[in-house]
Design a protein that fits this description.
- This protein has 232 residues and is α/β, with parallel strands linked by helices.
- The radius of gyration is 17 Å and the shape is globular.
- 41% of the residues lie in helices and 17% in strands.
- The protein binds S-adenosylmethionine (SAM).
- The site of S-adenosylmethionine has 22 residues, from α5 and β2.
Length: 232
């Protein structure tokens, strides 16, 4: 895991609907979470690699969660748990909220050399989804293992509302369209959705259409394929 050196407070302000100075403050609080960063980096190193495929903007996730003070956060795509850990830490500091995460883990090869290959999110042997998340932040975590195509609609039925949604998972247009449709009912007005399209990805047509329908202007995180939407 590498430290995020260029967080984007303008993106945070646009998503949280707050003045730039407040967004800068929230990002500075994320940067002050050095113990969390060191824990995650140490866990990754202990498995013979510096990183597992992870969200590129964990500091902004933390900042948005601090500012929105969500009661319910829904996340798809956990891997080692970098995004989950930053979200859970923000909820712990907020003293409110719960993170509901979905992950369909992929088992990694047992051989040490193969385990070192970068660009993968597969589980190291003997580990489970979210394996790097510190124990101290887990009490607000509802982690569900399975395919998003089954679990997302189920959670959308169980939860009466969410204020923050993080979709960091490979997706095709058809699935994304269905899954975001299932979310419509529970994503609250002014709720925020954040979607990762990979390092240089453009917004996919299904999510562009969903954003138009929700009246949510896509905001791109500077330099990344990460988009956020603030729903109306
Ligand atoms: C990019 S990684 C998530 C990284 C994570 N957000 C972080 O910051 O560390 C994508 C994750 O989605 C999981 N995944 C892939 N297909 C899935 C599916 N159909 N349903 C649920 N999870 C899936 C992968 O196993 C992997 O753990």
């Amino acid at each position: 895991m590498h430290p995020e050196t260029d967080p984007d407070p303008v993106w945070v302000a646009g998503l949280a609907g707050c003045p730039p100075a407040r967004a800068k403050w929230a990002v500075s609080r994320a940067q002050a979470e050095g113990a969390l960063y060191r824990h995650l980096a140490r866990e990754h190193r202990s498995e013979g690699r510096s990183s597992y495929v992870e969200i590129d903007a964990p500091l902004e996730l933390y900042a948005v969660a601090r500012l929105l003070r969500p009661r319910h956060v829904l996340e798809v795509g956990v891997s080692s748990g970098v995004s989950s850990a930053y979200l859970l830490r923000a909820l712990k500091v907020n003293r409110c909220g719960r993170l509901h995460s979905i992950d369909l883990p992929r088992r990694g090869p047992a051989r040490r050399r193969a385990r070192r290959s970068p660009g993968s999110w597969s589980l190291p042997p003997g580990r489970a989804s979210g394996w790097a998340v510190p124990r101290a932040v887990r009490s607000r975590w509802d982690l569900r293992l399975g395919d998003k195509r089954d679990l997302l609609p189920r959670l959308a039925r169980e939860l009466s509302g969410i204020e923050l949604f993080v979709y960091d998972v490979p997706h095709d247009d058809d699935d994304a369209a269905d899954e975001f449709r299932a979310l419509d009912r529970i994503l609250s007005p002014h709720g925020v959705a954040i979607v990762d399209h990979g390092p240089s990805g453009d917004l996919c047509p299904a999510l562009a259409a969903w954003a138009r329908r929700r009246g949510a202007r896509p905001l791109r995180r500077a330099g990344l394929g990460l988009y956020g939407f603030r729903a109306r």
